[in-house]
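ingest -> validate -> predict -> emit
validate: passed (alphabet ok, no gaps, 233 aa)
predict: started
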Amino acid sequence: MEMIKYLSRMELFKGLSEKELVQLNHVTPLETRNKGTVVASPHMEPKVLYIVKSGKVRLYKLTEEGKELTLDILGAGHLFGEMTSFHTGAAMFAVTMEDSVICEMEGWQFRKIISEKPELALKYIELVTARLKEVEELLGYMAYGSVRKRLLYLLRKLAAKFPSDSQVMQDWIPLGIELTHQELATMTGSIRETITPIINQLVSEGILRKEGTRKPYLIHMSRLQAALSFPVS
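emit:
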């Protein structure tokens, strides 16, 4: 029953009856993946749909120099798969950032479901379109933006994707995901030695704030947006 309630709260499956959710539950087996497990890659047969029930999954591609360039981080309730993540013109990988529970659906299973429930296909197309738009925007910043602009864009995206349960304090929004400077560097196509002084600069500018080593970053969203919109890269 827990899985059925979980599926019913997901945007893709909202509107399905309890009977339909029970049927869906039978074809979406749960797989527990340890931290660092490669869930999908160009060398593996991809499932059409993965659903993150708990944990976090990092999607990345390899640059021509062989470096990992993170394109997205997904948490509970997020989807990825052959259509949403792997048809973006680049060889994509998905790896767990922490112990995670993931539902996997085969292509034939998904085709059967959408043939019986066409409105699911429309919702899925909307999700695919939104994901492709995000990737295109990110690649645009990677190609033409400075490391500072890439980091600002990344922080804005993560704040929207991982809202914190903590209370918002006077325009300060807690970032609901903990990332090291090295992880932020990987996600912006940079190195830690470049990212750390930029983070310190954002703190001095009142865009970022941290109230303890084990506390999440706080982001002043209006200042971040103003800095991101500033034309100088």
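The CA atoms of residues 155 and 219 lie 8 Å apart.
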